[in-house]
Write a structure and sequence with these properties.
This protein is an alpha/beta fold. Helix content is about 30%, strand content about 20%. The chain contains 7 helices and 8 strands; from the N terminus they run E-E-E-H-H-E-H-E-H-E-E-H-E-H-H. Strands 1-2-4-3-5-6-7-8 form an 8-stranded mixed beta sheet, with helices on both faces. The longest helix has 19 residues. The protein starts with a strand and ends with a helix.
Length: about 270
């Protein structure tokens, strides 16, 4: 449990740690993971989940995280990296997440990706700064969908922070890049950023993102991106339905390769 940088919300985080002895006497690189609009929990459980708070019984917990998030948390841990999955929704009574085509709904205002969730990301980074096992010169920010848009917003403004805490790289997967998702379309990332897009995305426009990313690159931002032909939104979901699409399987496999490359790009 740790505080959001909004100074009023106690957040819930799930930590995936490398095996004991990994990097003994050496600080570990870390990744802060930001879930999408569906929240961090299994869709079979999330519908019955509202608030997720300290000492409160809830069907949404470490045992009911979605396969996607467990997959990535374990991936990072296996590669000697501490991963922290941040639940932005549960502590605000919205652990059930949101369905498709709900962007812009008033119900999502107090968990939006422009002004609220970036503060959660910074709260997670501050929490990591209190740990003695984390190398603050190697902390990546990873986000999916709504969480990916959140990541882009964080990267655009983190240089203006008064303290010295910074994410040093980012892995951004199928974000929304329109005006309703990106708070300031004239400010860009200043750390190495890898963006993975799906050409057949049914929820957000990869073309809009490509336009935004070209503007960022032309402005000197250290960003690179890949658009997977035939892939759909959530292509890295390990579930049988998503992986029955061949393009999704190809994209998922490559996403892990790109993730390790992105980790090596950290300044």
């Amino acid at each position: 449990y740790f505080s959001s940088a909004d100074n009023r919300t106690e957040l819930v985080g799930y930590v995936f740690e490398p095996a004991p002895g990994t990097g003994k006497n050496v600080r570990l690189p870390a990744v802060v993971m930001l879930h999408g609009r569906g929240g961090p929990y299994s869709s079979r459980i999330a519908e019955s989940c509202t608030a997720v708070r300290r000492q409160a019984s809830s069907p949404c917990n470490s045992q009911t995280l979605s396969k996607r998030h467990v997959q990535w948390g374990e991936f990072w841990a296996q590669h000697g990296t501490l991963a922290l999955l941040v639940d932005s929704f549960g502590p605000r009574g919205k652990g059930h997440g949101f369905g498709r085509h709900t962007h812009g709904s008033p119900q999502r205002d107090d968990v939006n990706e422009r002004t609220v969730r970036p503060l959660d990301a910074m709260g997670a980074l501050h929490y990591l700064s209190t740990r003695t096992d984390v190398d603050l010169e190697r902390v990546m920010l990873q986000g999916w969908s709504n969480g990916a848009s959140t990541a882009l917003n964080v990267l655009a403004v983190q240089r203006t922070r008064m303290d010295n805490l910074r994410f040093t790289s980012a892995l951004v997967m199928y974000p929304g890049c329109g005006t309703s998702a990106i708070a300031d379309r004239k400010s860009y990332m200043q750390v190495p950023t890898t963006v993975l897009l799906a050409a057949n995305d049914e929820e957000v426009s990869s073309l809009v993102c490509e336009k935004y990313l070209r503007l960022a690159k032309d402005a000197g931002a250290p960003v690179r991106w890949t658009t997977y032909e035939g892939a759909t939104h959530g292509f890295d979901d390990p579930g049988a339905q998503r992986q029955s699409v061949h393009a999704n399987k190809v994209a998922r496999d490559d996403a892990f390769r790109q993730a390790l490359m992105a980790a090596r790009l950290q300044r």
